[in-house]
């Protein structure tokens, strides 16, 4: 009996240790996925719901496994090789190709930072705070956090900010969407309509972004994940993919109910449209905090990814665990990206259209990004860690379809 009692006591302790191990490994996937639902993605989803109702719901669901397939490759590349995305491109394809990849990354990173700071500006405008103050304060806070010399601190603060986006899911249930209308309308996909295709391209660009690939591959390295952590790291990515697309779907549904068939001109209109369903104060605070959380975590991830990618391409010391004097070029690039994004927003007027245009730009650049990712998976990994059989051909087919869609968007603009 005493032995049985001891076994009963030890079982919870064992489960607790497993849970603590799981929590210690989780982070890179959830962080990058919460950042994926950034201010630009939220605005794009909101405009999609407002203009096309539930017709943009199905694409959000379809993009969920695609997002996982793409980011799962970065997990294997990072953990197995112990090298960042830019480093692998430089080693396998040469410095010129690495430079092309980094230029693509830096353009999309600065563009993404514009969307994040525009989200901050839009939220502050709802509360009567000048964007000069809010954007400047956000820039300083993010720079200080990034150069603090601790990856774990950055990850914990980032996830804490990103979880505010779950307010969007709460809002979806609050507005009481019609299930019958949703299930009927979501199957009506007007692919022959050019305006629908433009917003669809923006949604694809809002879900699969170049900086995500660079970030997660670098993050699993900075966090020190090893081969035995691979299954948990994949689960981390899967959970993140489900959460981020659930948030996107929620935003589409909320605006489909609250603001049907009307274009959005300001970020404040999102909260105003939902106010009749939730109340003015609740809509401002819940959606404002959701947008602010989306903006801040994404600004953090985007700037880190850009700095990692540039540093890897040129062989510069790069780690969030390094001190400033040991990685001054890395931290300088990180700081510069923030400053460029902030200045661009402070000089811009139509922030909603600017966000959508940037997401379309991401879709156009996808052939370069996904092309390198698939080639690295085939060249840089040992045979036992490469995709095989039906799964390999399915992932290649999906990625090629997304790349063709990006090229089609470029031709049809």
User: Nearest-angstrom radius of gyration?
Assistant: 21 Å
Low-confidence stretches: 1-11
Structural class: mainly alpha
- N-to-C series of helices and strands: HHHHHHHHHHHHHHHHHH
- Number of strand elements: 0
Please give the largest β-sheet.
none
Average predicted local confidence, pLDDT: 83
Shape: globular
Put simply, the count of helices is: 18
Level of helix content? over 70%
Distance between the termini: 76 Å
How much of the polypeptide forms β-strand, as a percent range? under 5%
Membrane topology: Multi-pass membrane protein
Organism: Alicyclobacillus tolerans
Transmembrane segments: 51-70, 97-114, 120-145, 157-176, 196-216, 237-258, 285-308, 329-349, 361-381, 393-411
Subcellular location: Membrane
Structural write-up:
The chain is mainly α. Helices cover 80% and strands 0% of the residues. The protein contains 18 helices and no strands. It has helices at 2-25, 28-36, 39-52, 57-81, 85-93, 95-126, 131-146, 151-162, 166-174, 179-185, 194-207, 210-222, 230-258, 268-278, 280-313, 328-346, 351-379, 389-412. Helix 6 runs antiparallel to helix 17 (351-379). It is globular and about 55 Å long.
Task: Please describe the structure with a list of short key phrases separated by commas or semicolons.
413 residues; disordered N terminus; mainly alpha
Compose a concise summary of this entry.
The N and C termini lie far apart (76 Å). The chain is built from 18 helices and no strands.
């Amino acid at each position: 009996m005493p032995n049985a009692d001891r076994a009963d006591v030890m079982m919870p302790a064992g489960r607790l240790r497993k849970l603590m191990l799981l929590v210690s490994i989780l982070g890179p996937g959830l962080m990058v996925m919460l950042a994926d639902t950034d201010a630009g993605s939220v605005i794009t989803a909101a405009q999609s719901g407002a203009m096309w109702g539930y017709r943009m719901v199905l694409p959000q669901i379809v993009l969920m496994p695609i997002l996982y397939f793409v980011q799962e490759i970065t997990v294997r590349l990072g953990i197995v090789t112990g090298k960042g995305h830019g480093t692998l491109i430089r080693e396998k394809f040469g410095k010129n190709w690495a430079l092309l990849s980094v230029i693509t990354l830096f353009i999309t990173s600065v563009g993404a930072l514009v969307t994040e700071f525009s989200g901050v500006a839009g939220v502050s405008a709802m509360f009567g705070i000048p964007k000069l103050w809010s954007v400047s304060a956000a820039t300083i806070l993010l720079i200080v956090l990034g150069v603090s010399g601790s990856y774990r601190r950055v990850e914990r603060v980032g996830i804490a900010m990103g979880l505010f986006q779950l307010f969007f899911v709460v809002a979806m249930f609050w507005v009481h969407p019609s299930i019958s209308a949703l299930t009927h309308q979501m199957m009506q996909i007007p692919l022959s309509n050019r305006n629908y295709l433009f917003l669809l391209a923006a949604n694809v660009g809002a879900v699969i972004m170049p900086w995500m690939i660079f970030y997660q591959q670098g993050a699993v390295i900075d966090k020190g994940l090893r081969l035995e952590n691979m299954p948990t790291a994949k689960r981390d990515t899967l959970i993140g993919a489900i959460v981020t697309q659930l948030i996107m779907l929620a935003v589409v549904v909320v605006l489909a109910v609250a603001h049907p068939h009307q274009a959005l001109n300001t970020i404040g209109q999102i909260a105003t449209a939902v106010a009749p369903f939730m109340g003015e104060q609740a809509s401002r605070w819940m959606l404002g905090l959701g947008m602010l959380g989306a903006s801040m975590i994404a600004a953090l991830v985007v700037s880190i990814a850009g700095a990692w990618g540039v540093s890897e391409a040129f062989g510069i010391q790069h780690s969030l665990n390094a001190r400033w004097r040991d990685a001054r070029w890395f931290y300088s690039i990180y700081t510069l990206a923030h400053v460029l994004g902030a200045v661009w927003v402070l000089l811009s007027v139509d922030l909603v259209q600017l966000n959508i245009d940037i997401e379309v730009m991401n879709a156009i650049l996808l052939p370069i990004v996904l092309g390198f990712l698939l080639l690295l998976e085939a060249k840089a990994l040992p045979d036992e860690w490469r995709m095989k059989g039906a799964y390999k051909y399915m992932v290649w087919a999906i990625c090629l379809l997304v790349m063709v869609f990006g090229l089609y968007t470029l031709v049809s603009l």
